[in-house]
Amino acid sequence: MEIIIDPRAGFCPGVRRAISQVETRLQRGEALTALGPLIHNQREIDRLALLGLETVSQEVADQPDKLAGLQGREIFIRTHGVGTALQTNLHDAGFTVIDGTCSTVKRVQKMAAEHYRLGEQIVIIGKKGHAEVIGILGHCENQGIVAADETDLAEIDPERATFVIAQTTIGGEQFERMCGLIAGHVRQVTFADTTCPFISRRYDQIAGFAGSVDLLIFVGGRESSNSRVLFEICRQKNPRSYRIESPAELDRAWIHPQDLIGITGGASTPYWQFEEIRDLLSAAENKV
Length: 288
Known about the structure:
Elements: E1 2-5, H1 13-27, E2 32-35, H2 42-51, E3 54-56, H3 64-68, E4 74-77, H4 84-92, E5 97-99, H5 103-117, E6 121-125, H6 131-137, E7 145-147, E8 162-166, H7 172-183, E9 189-191, H8 197-211, E10 215-219, H9 225-237, E11 241-244, E12 260-265, H10 271-287
Parallel strand pairs: 1-12, 2-3, 2-4, 4-5, 6-7, 6-8, 8-9, 10-11, 10-12
Helix pairs in contact: 5-6, 8-9
């Protein structure tokens, strides 16, 4: 048995920057509260909590009584970003706000706001209820339409000038398919491919890695849309692909003695979780 970690696996630049911002402040002893889970990886959130990071739901910013309980703490906006009204509430309440919004997401927010001001109908191709999508909607007064599949076309007014953008972490195939459907439904439409370049590159990279090993262990948070998409690519390329969130989910029955085992994961999976699985497999092999 041989074990290798995908050399391209690990945090995307936006997540890496946010984690670094948080760790730096916690190490200085600052009181820091994240609005919503920092990333979709519960075990990494638990690690940061041990360092002192508090996490609350974004809804507290709309509840003055709960906001009062956070006075004296800095507020950290996660990589997914938030709407302009929420940002205003926090500043008006006197909080020091550290903005960890991914630069790629910020670009999408700005485009949504600009085209909404021009009177265009904003359509976001993505997952309804996703934190990033909620944040983007908050930059067009929550008047945008979220389209995940063809059933959502009925919500789009075919007679209005329409501007179409994407949740940054959705798959390119989904974006292209939905653009084709919208183009056939709306008279005047402009498309902007706002999918994340880093994530787009990862599709080909991870497919190549999955195809190069006998068994693939994918490590990623259950709530991560990015991990879900990447794992599906792995499974299509290599039927012996298994997704886990923690070492407890690892099943030795998956493994054959002569396997070349590859370990990879999503853009919100820290490298220490890959090493953890590698070390566990290595220790088990040494005991045989």
